[in-house]
Amino acid sequence: TLQITPNNPAVDIDQEFYRKFTGLKSQNPSLKTMLSIGGWVDSNINDKYSRMVSTSENIQTFVDSVLRMMSDYGFDGLDVDWEYPRTDADKIGFSNLLAALKKAFAPFNYVLSAAVSPLPADLGFDIPAIEASVDFINLMTYDLHGPWEPETADHHAPLRKRSWETADNNVEYSVDYWIENGLSANKINLGLPLYGHSWKLSSDVAVPPAPASGAGTPGPFTNVEGYMGYFEICLAVQNEGWQVVQDPDQLTGPYALSNTNVVNWIGFDDVAMLTTKSNFILSRGLGGAMVWEISLDDFRGS
């Protein structure tokens, strides 16, 4: 239909999750509650996003549906998380979509943001056009490494380049890239991960880049190979004796090692690294931070 639709109508509509979420403004009147569309799974089901931005009529159909949903449920803005526009046509269409949303949102003072790739060189982003339309971007500075690189265990959100690296694949480079190509620093919300990626080590070497033999054991609750929420990492350290190793230079967050015969290695950001990244945000004059995602945090403070 090329219209915005709830991800889970039974929860979002029937159980009134949308209204409960926007209702938080009754406790904090200055709070802004935003709807997000996209994400990795929805963006890659088929070519619907490419079709949606392919004509001005299709864009208008989508924009009109967004305005209805925002009004019906009391949202204050929209985050567009298309992962990712790739072709030249996508690039133009994505820019046209953001421009149309900006124009439609203006009478209502709605907020418009986009969740974008940290390393967009080969993707369909017209950065000056994005700058002209959005209030801010959510820069997804994580998943820079993962079990899709099965033979090498490494931190998935390094802050800065390490001496042994040949590629510029880190948070600092990503921020510099977006700024140098036309985005205002104060429109960048830096993405902070509340999860880690894991591997099974294939040797006694644990310092990255560590030889590995595929994805690590799933967390007990998230249940995805090569992935654990921060709360699961805390439980593993606290209850299973996983050893935490810090980077003395704070170029990356720590990694933790299981005390099993086949060692599981997981890299993650802890409180110390999030503090370091927060200071980086302040030092570079960025707009702020965002986290992916809140349910993965150490919500019991353990």
UniProtKB/TrEMBL annotation:
Record keyword Iron present: no
Sorted UniProt keywords: Glycosidase, Hydrolase
Keyword Membrane: no
Pfam families: Glyco_hydro_18
One term of GO molecular function: chitinase activity
Stored SUPFAM superfamilies: (Trans)glycosidases, Chitinase insertion domain
Entry coiled-coil feature ranges: none
Boundaries of every GH18 domain copy: 1-302
One GO BP annotation of this record: chitin catabolic process
Stated name of the protein: Chitinase 17
Domain of life: Eukaryota
Family, as annotated: Belongs to the glycosyl hydrolase 18 family.
